[in-house]
Amino acid sequence: MCNHMPEFLAKTGYKNPKNNRKTIFDSAFNWEGGAFKYWEEHPVQGEAFNIVQKASTSSQTRWTSIYPSHMLLEGDPQLPLLVDVGGSVGQDVQCFFEKHPETASRLYLEDIPSVIADENSTVAKGINKVPYDFFTPQPIKHARAYYMHHVLHDWPDRQARKILEMQKAAMKPGYSKLLIHDQVMNDDGPVHPHAAGLDIGMMLFGSAQERTEKEWESLITSAGLKIVKIWRVPSAPQGIIEAELASEKSKL
């Protein structure tokens, strides 16, 4: 696929790709519709992608070691607790469950039907599995947290904004949090090699990108949300952006 990059960029005037329907991936595979559509219609390759996703996540610092997950327990026990949006085979929601096993019935794993049905999913019994397209309205309302790991970096700003807006509409003012687990690159200065490599990869697959702190702020603000804090630890090149509805004060 990388071999197609010079030719593709030459044809497009060496502009940063922004159209997720005309990608370097599409050019390489003589395909239209983007990588995720390809994997959905080619189950063998799609299953391989899910396995890679799980392996990649398992080698990273657990998100519950970056973000103080116990704070999410300080909410209404009658409401959904955590929704793992686009959560693949469930490695991240399982991570939360292992730390807080009593919360299983209030945990939700969401992804497209073919992924939700994947036999490689190892989420614990009791965790809710919901087929969901994150470009459509979020069906789980008023959760304490909506968590997205390596979701938004797959999409250009226009599509990423749409995803955010679909989650925003389900959030309870002053209560719900949005947790974005992704690369947060420095605005100035050196970039972590892992982030730089992923940035090129996202351009190849989806005309997308990794984002700097300022780019994240611009995107999140444009969707009617605001950043509360960016959580980081030295052992992880990624961060977790905690956001909430704009102009709302926290309350339980």
From TrEMBL:
GO annotation terms (biological process): methylation
Gene3D superfamilies (alphabetical): Vaccinia Virus protein VP39 (3.40.50.150)
UniProt KW keywords: Methyltransferase, S-adenosyl-L-methionine, Transferase
InterPro entries to which the protein is assigned, alphabetical: COMT-like, COMT_C, SAM-dependent_MTases_sf
Pfam families found in the cross-reference section: Methyltransf_2 (PF00891)
Domain O-methyltransferase C-terminal, residue spans: 77-225
Source organism superkingdom: Eukaryota
SUPFAM superfamilies assigned: S-adenosyl-L-methionine-dependent methyltransferases
Listed GO MF terms: O-methyltransferase activity
Keyword Transferase tagged: yes
Protein name: O-methyltransferase ATR12
Native organism: Colletotrichum liriopes
